[in-house]
Specification:
Order of helices and strands: HHHHHHHHH
Helix content: over 70%
Largest sheet: none
Structural class: mainly alpha
Number of strands: 0
Strand content: under 5%
């Protein structure tokens, strides 16, 4: 929550979040046409399911901000809408994975077992076609987000310098140690 407050105060993080989610949506919607193998598509779903907590946290944040009448309502609403397919995948497969584990008396499923559940349950999954996935922005060497990342790196550097108080001798010893690592 504290990171959320800091990032919201300094940057409109929803633009970047929307771009990332749209990239996932493009792979979800059209991935079967350009991913190298059908198993790549299965693995995409596996990773979405595996990382569901990150998507759930993002969804909770944008849902909360999209229901408030603040300055973040519209951009948060766009991200909420874009998360529909990712949430559909998570909400569709998680109960099936839990059921598979219960029926087979397994507490921790392997990646292959989860992929088996995914492959056998595509037919009951309903996804929504997202608008605008066929339109894209041309690549540019100088990204619009460059200032965001510069500020992020600068902030991290300042925090590291502030929090790491090495004396000169320990810095030299540390550098020598790193230089001998092969």
């Amino acid at each position: 929550m504290s990171n959320e407050t800091v990032l919201l105060a300094k940057h409109n993080i929803f633009t970047l979040a929307l771009m990332v989610i749209n990239l996932f949506n493009m792979f979800i919607t059209y991935g079967d046409t350009f991913l190298p193998t059908p198993s790549s598509y299965d693995e995409l779903y596996y990773e979405i399911i595996r990382m569901h907590q990150s998507f759930d946290n993002l969804y909770s944040m944008v849902l909360r901000l999209s229901t408030n009448a603040g300055q973040w309502k519209e951009p948060a609403s766009k991200v909420t809408y874009a998360l529909v397919n990712i949430r559909a995948i998570i909400n569709h497969f998680n109960p099936k994975i839990e059921s598979y584990a219960a029926v087979n008396h397994i507490s921790q499923l392997s990646e292959e077992q989860v992929l088996e559940v995914v492959r056998s349950n595509y037919d009951t999954l309903t996804l929504k076609l997202q608008d605008g996935l066929d339109q894209y922005e041309r690549y540019s060497e100088q990204h619009k987000e460059a200032s965001f990342f510069k500020e992020l790196v600068r902030s991290i550097s300042i925090n590291v310098r502030r929090n790491l108080a090495f004396n000169t001798l320990s810095q030299e010893a540390l550098l020598k140690e790193f230089s001998t690592i092969s």
